[in-house]
Write a structure and sequence with these properties.
Helix content is 0%, strand content 0%. With 37 residues, it is low in regular secondary structure.
């Protein structure tokens, strides 16, 4: 919270590229979503 009492929310938009056989609903579990190792 800032001194004036307001809160700020930051959102980071991360592009996720799905493979043709991947389902967008399983995006979080996808290898495309994980950082490269």
């Amino acid at each position: 919270m800032n001194r004036d009492g307001s809160t700020k929310v930051a959102r980071i938009i991360v592009p996720v590229f799905l493979q043709p056989d991947e389902d967008p609903t399983d995006m979080v579990a996808s290898a495309s979503f994980r950082p490269p190792s």
